[in-house]
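User: Structure please.
Assistant: Input sequence and predicted structure:
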Amino acid sequence: MTDPETSPLARIRFVLVETTHTGNIGAVARAMKNMGLRRLHLVSPRQPPDAEAMARASGADDLLAAAEVHPDLVSALAGCRRVIGSSARHRAVAWPLVEPPAAARLLLEEARHGDVALVFGRECSGLSNDELARCQYLAHIPTDPDFSSLNLAAAAQVFAYELRRVWLEQADAAPAAAPRDLAPSEALEGFFAHLDQTLLDIGFADPEQSSKLGRRLRRLFQRAEPDRTELNILRGILSAAQGRKSPGRFARAAAPAPREE
């Protein structure tokens, strides 16, 4: 069996966005530790972990002490090869949708080679469209539609269990192929900012109506999962479209005409 300290489980982040109740942070930490997960990241929690969080953690206070706090989601996802967002709500712009077992397989597949993240939204409203746009997949727990709302910690427990179950099945399996050097989250964010600006510069996008277009383009490129080299090529194309490259820089001088004897 693979050592849990060096297994893919050690590279999976649970990211909680603007959690309101500190008790939920503690309960998520407990759910994670039950299943061998240790990477807890907090994005602008309303309050830092306190005595209520410690009580709900029930022995997982080491995860709370080690939790990383970030000012925004972008910094919480820095270095991640794959990001999945958890949400109970379906969206106007359809995202690739998976259930917890498939989400676990997708995360563990890339966690063999680097950090990945599972993102949970606010207790009252979940993830915003802009936050979901930073995820490659949307994970949905198929609850009863008549009573679909899950407590944050309960949702975290479902995913934590599936991650451990799949990990136990795959622990001794070798990767099928050498890993691709996937562009990390922060590199993708730089590309999307460059893309947005280019679309404005060339007159393709309307600044007042471009948010939905931006989400659709994010979905397109995130589905492709470009590696670093491919992302550099795409950014070079954008720079050329912005006029930052000399149009004739690869032109070759015409060969001289043959002389007539």
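Residues 4-170 form a domain with the Alpha/beta knot fold (CATH 3.40.1280.10).
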